[in-house]
Amino acid sequence: MVLDLDRTTVRQARTLARKVGRPIVRLAKAHTTVSVERATLRLAGLSGADAEGTPWVNRLLDAVRADVDLGHGVALPVWDALLREESEDLLTLAQKAAAGSVRFRLPEGRDATRAAAASRRAVGAGIKAIDKRRTERERLVRRIGDAPRQPWIYLIVATGDIYEDIPQAQAAAREGADVIAVIRSTGQSLLDYVPEGATREGYAGTYATQENFKLMRAALDETSRELGRYVRLTNYASGLCMPEIAALAGLERLDMMLNDSMYGILFRDINPVRTFVDQRFSRQVHARAGIIINTGEDNYLTTADAVEAAHTVTVSQLLNEYFAKEAGLEDWQLGLGHAFEIDPAVPESFRLELAHALLARELFPKAPLKWMPPTRHMTGDVFRGYLLDGFFNLAGALTGQGILLVGMMTEAVVTPWLSDRDLALQNVRYVLDAAGGLREDFRPAPDGLIATRARQVLGESVDLLTRMADDGLLDAIADGTFGLMRRPADGGRGLDGVARKSAAYLNPATQILENER
Amino acid sequence: MVLDLDRTTVRQARTLARKVGRPIVRLAKAHTTVSVERATLRLAGLSGADAEGTPWVNRLLDAVRADVDLGHGVALPVWDALLREESEDLLTLAQKAAAGSVRFRLPEGRDATRAAAASRRAVGAGIKAIDKRRTERERLVRRIGDAPRQPWIYLIVATGDIYEDIPQAQAAAREGADVIAVIRSTGQSLLDYVPEGATREGYAGTYATQENFKLMRAALDETSRELGRYVRLTNYASGLCMPEIAALAGLERLDMMLNDSMYGILFRDINPVRTFVDQRFSRQVHARAGIIINTGEDNYLTTADAVEAAHTVTVSQLLNEYFAKEAGLEDWQLGLGHAFEIDPAVPESFRLELAHALLARELFPKAPLKWMPPTRHMTGDVFRGYLLDGFFNLAGALTGQGILLVGMMTEAVVTPWLSDRDLALQNVRYVLDAAGGLREDFRPAPDGLIATRARQVLGESVDLLTRMADDGLLDAIADGTFGLMRRPADGGRGLDGVARKSAAYLNPATQILENER
Amino acid sequence: MSEQRLVRPYGDTTGDGMVQLSFTLPLPHDKVAEGAAAQLAAKMGMDPALVVHAKPMGPDFTFFVVYGRVHHLVDPSLVEVVERDYPLLTPKEVNAAVKRSLRRRLVVVGGCIGTDAHTVGIDAILNIKGFAGEKGLEYYRELKVVNLGAQVAVPELVERAVAERADAVLVSQVVTQRDAHLLNTREMSAAFREAFAAERRPLLVVGGPRFDETMAGDLGVDRVFGRGTTPGEVASFLVHRVTTRSAA
Amino acid sequence: MSEQRLVRPYGDTTGDGMVQLSFTLPLPHDKVAEGAAAQLAAKMGMDPALVVHAKPMGPDFTFFVVYGRVHHLVDPSLVEVVERDYPLLTPKEVNAAVKRSLRRRLVVVGGCIGTDAHTVGIDAILNIKGFAGEKGLEYYRELKVVNLGAQVAVPELVERAVAERADAVLVSQVVTQRDAHLLNTREMSAAFREAFAAERRPLLVVGGPRFDETMAGDLGVDRVFGRGTTPGEVASFLVHRVTTRSAA
Ligand code: B12
Ligand code: B12
Ligand SMILES: Cc1ncc(COP(=O)(O)O)c(C=O)c1O
Ligand SMILES: Cc1ncc(COP(=O)(O)O)c(C=O)c1O
């Protein structure tokens, strides 16, 4: 600890975050969403899509919803229908339902008890499958070997075509990447279904599908063996389908997921309630699957000024921490985000970056922390960009970041080329090998610029949290506190997919995930 | 002082350097050279060249030498001839001598006394001109303003054409250069005369001529006024004509000169005795002219390994310091050289660079120190090169270097392009503005890698100096101690231009320079 | 204009024609690959072309850096630029002009269409905060701005334009991979052409950092704005075109 | 060989043809200059060409970075490379071959000619220390090496070659500004042609990092070696050529 933060202030900040977060958890507990229910069906083993590509979980859920209020959950009506022997299995049921030949009801009494038990068995099997994948990961890491050092080197691929992504990801791993993230196509987060199958037509990213997950994980397993280190795979549990994607990630042994409590609200204009409900469920799944989440505070600094808004990053990290722990995630699973986004023209910009990065490091000493590269102030001057990325890497090394997302010199130009990635990795390697040890010699003066700035940001965070504890998080979001985006609680997409839970509501997935920790 | 070097060891190193250097000074004092004598004539006002471009100082000296032993010096025979009214002035005398119509002799008795007095008057006028230039510089710096901060930003131009150099130098100054160096054409150091006039036909550099000096200094004076800071000009007092070039630099108000006690021997295969004699004279001129010298230790690391040979840099710096002080230079005039030349693939290479740079900084606390960029391990990968230069700049800032020679991403490709220089300055500015203050937070652990390495290099330097104190510097040079170049004392070019001084030897320039300090 | 001399790239001497080039070839690194790199450079007009760096990236690809001289001449007099063909007005002048010629507020509907969610650019033009020290269009009293934000579907955009009786529709496109920006813009302009009679169609303006400003005709829009656009330029353009139209 | 497929540069998708280019134009920065940059890129075959960065450097110059697609196809089967047309021998084999065919030591005279003082390259080939883990030619028992070092004048080189009865002369050239290396090499080969009858002339070999290996004929030398050359390659070449010659 080189900053020597005031412990009382730190404790106060966490207490305030709890105070701000608790009403939101209450809100999340009181509602369900179409995606939470579909995720439940997926955990019970329903997959695939109809001829038009609409997933069976969507067809089935829509049919149920036509007959029964969403607030009761999907489990009781569906397993009730199965028990009434309408079909042998979920798929047949979904097909029939799609054809309009099944009617659903909310079972009561013994019927309800039996339906509940059956659903718990079915969903339990899915959760067991996730458990197996987690054990498998632990075994592979042990057998094959882990990333050789921290920070883990995190690289994105984004061709839009899974079959181009795979060789690029393998090449990146060979060149030193410890983590591969497959960026999603621009449109996916607003789709209220998860596309099916292997896909080749994304824009600036590749669709997140179960099959794409499977193909990429298999390819990286092969490469992991070849390299003697387990290469982690990341995708996005984000957008309108985050609960389902979280489930698929658990089932296909993805290792990390982008998953932020407010990103969808702020940057995809998804309804806040929808988001918080989906969030909580998806984090419960991640907790169970042993997946590390990556939060999205870096995004605020692409729209708001990185110096002025530094404390909003800290506040958001504290909230993400609170929500994550409440959902069952442990410290080592908290890849809290922050970024190197100060305008390079600001005097002492590098030292200010160090101050911010150290503050995060020392506020969350056990979290891996995800350190994001400059994007906003990157320009078409790729030489300057390459240098900035080098200093970003240095800041990461000096402040002990856990996950280093590798910056690309073409940030302001194109989605990364093969050569950009190779050059970027060369940059990271040089900085870590040549100057990584400089941390030993980095001792910010106790009242120097760095320590003073870190204290100032912490102070501003406590002030903001104090105000939010009075007015509520939803109001703060509506006011443009984060990333300057104003999002009212009743606006945004996907609100029609939210329902207040009825007294009869039952979700075996939530039950298992909440009771078995 | 962050290294806390052992004072006794430092004192011992200096004592040893004196011991190694003293016999060389004795050797230098006992000899003269054609170039020392020609420089004397230049100080007395002889300039210009004949129709074939051979300077009049060469024509005159050669004629004198045909009649009188060089060991007597040129002053007595020449002013004796003038007093015998062979000619009204030096130029006419030179012309007649070239036509073979003058005979020279070594005057004796009253003739000698009168010739000596006349020569002292003539040369004294030249030295006064140098004094005036020095005062002028001091006044300009005061009036116009000095470089805004340390390190001074030092940029080279190297088109080969003075008329392309000038706009490029002015552009560089506008972009932030504090010092402009005009690199010399590849062949010049081996010419035993100084070319005349404005030149446009250099290879990979522009000829050092009095006219080129004048043109560039005038252009930079203009730009200095425009920018409100005095932009310094540098050239090379090096090669077979270093005494003459030193004199011309003093007369044309150059501000810094490359001037190393061994560079010519090692890298141009110039005879050691010739070099040491020329060296001492040129440094006496620089001392008088208020010129800062730049020594050439960086060159060793382009041929020898920068880690293995680190101590040879230190030893050479100590010798350069001894020779410089003996010649009358003051601490602020010692731009001792060192360089960022460790193979970037060596683990902790950046920290090793810091160790070496700090050692130099703390051994010579009052010297400006010239910090040279990576060259040897630069490749055609210009992106990597740009990054390396950034870390070089950072090392310069962290260790408080006085003069920072700006590295170019095209180092391994071409002599710098206009855009290379612009990009390189942008690199320097970013690093100094964003991270310059990091020095405040840089505290090498007392027994960490950096401090340990610095102590080790100092220890190896003392060992080498101890050996050299026994065997002599000439033997060490013959053995390939510096830059792996083996140069025997009786080899190399220019030995025929050396003569042992006779009892009658007289040089008014040396007399004035030595007596008036 | 046509007085301008021909120029060549400049390395360190006038006329030397020197340029730097980098690219990847899908070839394993060997002498043939280096020769192939030189061949490409030659086809681009570089002679001599020096392959100064070749780095294998896995078994199938090699990255190259090439330096060399190109012999092409550049004729600045042939350059077509979309020069501003309207006066640059202050907010005050814009307001006055709208008032004078329309006698009502000028209605602007804006947003990012398709799946593009990059709103910083359109916000820079529309929001009060503005860009590069200039206030955005919301600041202009006589402009009514409806900012639909990100990921607006084209039918939704048309609908709002009709409902708001928009005089101008401003669309931003930042993602260009697989020409997304061009496809989306064409879809948008076609939809407006379908929905409106030619003389009633609102002005269509697109912008984004990777647009070619000369492509307006091709894309079926009235104007394209590129990187670094300021709100004042856009406001002045709108006033110029809308008032000209209403005068006609 | 001719089986090889045609290739295009690779950005992030097979066949996308993407390249990066940078250069300076002697024009003040404005829209015309940006258009001129795009024009140059177009002449180089880039379409579309995106000028992604333009930076004024003083009032008279602008630096550009351009990204875009080139449509040229690269045909690796047409690449001419100077492939090694002689066996690569170990030092032992070299020594044996010299002994067998010459029955005396093979004499090599080397140096940097002209005003070039870069000896690291020629030393890497000649000195025992060698390069890339291979010992230099001095290490070979059956080779006699005379290394003249830097800045050797051509007449001096010829003289020493005569005096030493050189079988081969090795010349290094590193400085290439204003084609210094080509001028010096041509001067050197002409001088040897003048001084020796064709059949008695020593083998002439030049090397340096910026030579084009296919230029031997043009330069009047027997072989050109480029960057990364190792001593073993040179020794093998010498033996191959000298022994072939003495056999003929
Ligand atoms: C900020 C940012 C984001 C933010 C956006 C926040 C927001 N609310 O806008 C976040 C983090 C959310 C984001 C996400 C993504 N981004 Co983004 N992002 C950027 C970034 C860093 C800066 C863009 C920016 O804000 N520029 C500043 C504004 C002011 O400039 P501007 O847009 O050029 O606008 C000016 C002019 O162009 C013009 N203008 C623009 N629009 C209009 C419209 C009109 C009518 C007019 C008149 C003028 C005009 O005026 C403006 C002022 O001068 C760029 C990289 C970079 N440095 O450029 C990448 C970049 C644009 N993003 C990119 C990508 C791929 C994405 C993702 C798709 C990645 C993924 N798959 O997850 C996601 C998803 C976004 C989506 N669905 O579209 C790519 C696009 C690649 C390409 N060329 O196709 C870039 C280039 C990064 C990269 N190299 O990969 N991104
Ligand atoms: C070391 C160095 C120096 C040292 C030289 C020390 C010495 N004793 O050689 C010093 C510091 C003295 C120096 C000085 C100068 N240098 Co210098 N120097 C370099 C540097 C950093 C490395 C060159 C090197 O040693 N490479 C390593 C060797 C092993 O590689 P190589 O030469 O390519 O040799 C290999 C092959 O090419 C081949 N090979 C080479 N020769 C031969 C010969 C034969 C027969 C064969 C078979 C093979 C062969 O085999 C070798 C092993 O693989 C380069 C920049 C760079 N990073 O490349 C600049 C560079 C070569 N120098 C340059 C210049 C301009 C100069 C100066 C002229 C500057 C000046 N005006 O003062 C001076 C003066 C030198 C002069 N008169 O020639 C320029 C040349 C620009 C150009 N393309 O024209 C360069 C490229 C730097 C730059 N960008 O400006 N330099
Ligand atoms: C936390 C988080 N989620 C998701 C995304 C990706 O956006 P989308 O959901 O549109 O794929 C990002 C962007 O990088 C992010 O930071
Ligand atoms: C000390 C010193 N003198 C002189 C030179 C230049 O060499 P030349 O004398 O050949 O111009 C250098 C090279 O950079 C040098 O370091």
UniProtKB/TrEMBL annotation, chains A, B:
Gene3D superfamilies: D-Lysine 5,6-aminomutase alpha subunit (3.20.20.440). GO terms for molecular function: catalytic activity; cobalamin binding. InterPro entries: Cbl-dep_enz_cat, Lys-AminoMut_A, Lys-AminoMut_asu_sf. Residues 3-511 form the D-Lysine 5,6-aminomutase alpha subunit domain. It holds the Pfam family Lys-AminoMut_A. It comes from the Bacteria. This is Lysine 2,3-aminomutase. It comes from Nocardioides mangrovicus.
Automatic annotation (TrEMBL), chains C, D:
GO terms for molecular function: cobalamin binding; metal ion binding; protein dimerization activity. It comes from the Bacteria. InterPro entries: Cobalamin-bd, Cobalamin-bd_sf, KamE_N, KamE_N_sf. Residues 105-248 form the B12-binding domain. Gene3D superfamilies: Cobalamin-binding domain, D-lysine 5,6-aminomutase beta subunit KamE, N-terminal domain. This is Lysine 2,3-aminomutase.
